[in-house]
């Protein structure tokens, strides 16, 4: 039986050659092979301004943030792939989540997040692979009301971590990633039934 669950994958880095974009594309490939649908937007292309309540009061929620929130509302789960900046989640990721969580007319912003499974992953050129920020990313997702999965993966020395096909060169890491997505899929099935 084909699984029709839908994953939103957010990448906390938008630079050309982003290691976390590579990780996210690997996630999408694994998810697709497991029968899941994925959406992998480019947050920077959505032109979401820095969170500013004065701007919110005068202009409302930016269209890009509304678009992301709608995708999250339609999705069954969220996967975040983000590097760390000084041990913290990136401003790009945090800003998008902040805007997405804002109330908007009759929409309670947190409703899009509440009760949905989430998985946090990271990749970085450094030895720890963004590990320091994973706990904070997980805490942020939990604060938004998500069911944060215990599985996680940080890919260190990520500039050399990917094969030409986009998979992780380290077979153990590739297996861990595949298993994390399988566990997420199982959680979605249990929540559905």
TrEMBL record:
Pfam families: FMN_red (PF03358). Keywords: Flavoprotein, FMN. Its cofactor is FMN. One of its GO terms (molecular function) is FMN binding. Residues 7-158 form the NADPH-dependent FMN reductase-like domain. SUPFAM superfamilies: Flavoproteins. It comes from the Bacteria. GO terms for cellular component: cytosol. InterPro entries: Flavoprotein-like_sf, FMN_Rdtase-like_dom, NAD(P)H-dep_reductase. This is NADPH-dependent FMN reductase. The lineage of its organism: Bacteria, Pseudomonadati, Pseudomonadota, Gammaproteobacteria, Chromatiales.
């Amino acid at each position: 039986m084909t699984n029709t669950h839908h994953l939103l994958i957010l990448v906390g880095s938008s630079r050309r050659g982003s290691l976390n974009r590579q990780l996210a594309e690997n996630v999408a490939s694994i998810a697709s092979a497991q029968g899941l649908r994925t959406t992998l937007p480019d947050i920077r292309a959505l032109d979401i301004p820095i969170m500013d309540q004065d701007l919110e009061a005068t202009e409302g929620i930016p269209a890009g943030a509304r678009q992301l929130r709608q995708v999250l509302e339609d999705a069954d789960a969220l996967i975040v792939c983000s590097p760390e900046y000084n041990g913290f989640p990136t401003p790009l990721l945090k800003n998008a989540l902040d805007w997405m969580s804002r109330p908007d007319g009759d929409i309670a912003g947190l409703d899009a997040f509440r009760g949905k499974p989430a998985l946090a992953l990271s990749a970085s050129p450094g030895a720890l692979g963004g590990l320091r920020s994973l706990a904070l990313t997980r805490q942020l997702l939990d604060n938004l009301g998500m069911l944060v999965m215990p599985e996680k993966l940080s890919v260190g020395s990520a500039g050399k971590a990917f094969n030409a096909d986009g998979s992780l060169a380290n077979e153990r890491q590739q297996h861990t990633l595949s298993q994390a997505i399988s566990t997420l899929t199982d959680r979605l099935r249990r929540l559905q039934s």
